[in-house]
Fold each of these.
Amino acid sequence: MRIRRVPRSAIAPGALVDGATLIFADMAYQIDNMEGLSVYRNQQGEIILTLVSDDNFSALQRTLLLQFRLVEE
């Protein structure tokens, strides 16, 4: 799984976009099969990323709900 920050100005029909990697996780972190992403600003003005997956009824996968706060540098 990778979450990248892409400038809004880079998004256009047919554009090939890329951006800084904010989060990278793979099976070394027991992360697999992420299927949903919600991004919102909370009452404190912080940007919150919420990710969700399901186990697809598989013993090899898990249902996960992960939440991160974006920290600006």
Amino acid sequence: MGFVVKGPDTGCDQWEISYSYPLSLRTLLYAGYVRINNRANAAYTFNINDYSIVNGARPSGTVFGITHFF
């Protein structure tokens, strides 16, 4: 979350679902989805890029990748 606000209807709920699949003892594939449900006066984001959203927006994102541990 990028910042904190206070007042009525400034909360949010964040949820995500993800799955990983091992290809070997040191390599795995993963995929996931995340979403923020802002209330009427909240504008929380993922704080990754410098972009703004309107109050009450519901930003979401997906991730896919592969990881190898050396």
